[in-house]
Design goal:
Blueprint: H1 3-16, E1 24-29, H2 34-49, E2 54-62, H3 71-80, E3 84-88, H4 91-99, H5 105-123, E4 127-129, H6 134-148, E5 157-160, E6 165-168, H7 176-186, H8 202-216, H9 220-229
Parallel strand pairs: 1-2, 1-4, 2-3, 4-6
Antiparallel strand pairs: 5-6
């Protein structure tokens, strides 16, 4: 995916759901993966010409997995001249040693968000940008149907008054394949995920299943995304 197309899709999502207001202080949640690094790069470019002015920073929650090294993320942020925060936690120990849940992802996500939101409050940052892409939205909808018996997808904008932050998802129109190509073209180095359950989760299963469905029924992904965007979920902005 070319830079111009990436920025066009991100700007379209931001404008469709009014994700950014003048004076916003936005932190991009950076895991070190291809999606979050692409969003950070794109938001930096967008900041230069977007009509609504906003401050930009990056934040990483280090959950404590052995072998996770965010030095490259810090260097990437320095290169882009973006302030960077790393929140060090013991979430890995809590989830995999103390809790020992057979489905640890939900607890891990909850603890990561809590740690980051607390730090954002200390920094006076009012918006958190997550890098969920188009495929993430589709796979979440598929998971909700299979495991919960309902049709649900990430809201583009989520107000969290108890945390004092609003979550936005500017990459919702960007396909994962486009992100992979963009990262390769730009030579962006990603951080290897050392989570012991990476690749064996329900989300990984949903991803494989959705790829199979789309191969057998071309265009299925686009039609599902169309249903999501027009689904009128109660927690989505009108």
């Amino acid at each position: 995916m070319k830079q111009q197309k990436l920025l066009s899709l991100i700007r379209q999502a931001i404008q469709d759901y009014n994700m950014i207001e003048d004076g916003d202080r936005i932190a991009v949640g950076v895991s070190g993966g291809k999606d979050s690094l692409t969003l950070l790069y794109a938001m930096k470019l967008l900041q230069e010409f977007y009509p609504k002015r906003f401050e930009l920073s990056a934040i990483t929650c280090n959950v404590g997995f052995e072998g996770m090294d965010f030095t490259g993320v810090a260097e990437f942020c320095k290169h882009l001249e973006i302030p960077y925060e790393q929140v060090d936690t013991e979430i890995a120990r809590i989830v995999f040693q103390e809790n020992k849940d057979t489905r640890p992802c939900s607890l891990c996500a909850k603890l990561r968000k809590g740690a980051m939101y607390q730090r954002l409050g200390e920094l006076g940052i009012n918006k958190m940008a997550y890098a969920h892409n188009k495929d993430d939205f589709i796979e979440t909808a598929l998971m909700s149907l299979i495991y919960e018996g309902r049709f649900y997808a990430f809201p583009p904008v989520t107000e969290l008054p108890e945390a004092g932050v609003t979550v936005i998802r500017p990459m919702m129109y960007v396909p994962e394949r486009g992100v992979a190509h963009f990262v390769a073209d730009q030579g962006i180095r990603v951080v290897k995920n050392t989570c012991p359950v990476d690749g064996s989760t329900k989300r990984a299963y949903a991803k494989q299943l959705m790829e199979q469905i789309n191969r057998e029924t071309p265009g299925a992904k686009d039609r599902i995304m169309h249903a999501i965007v027009n689904g009128r979920f109660p927690d989505w902005p009108l």
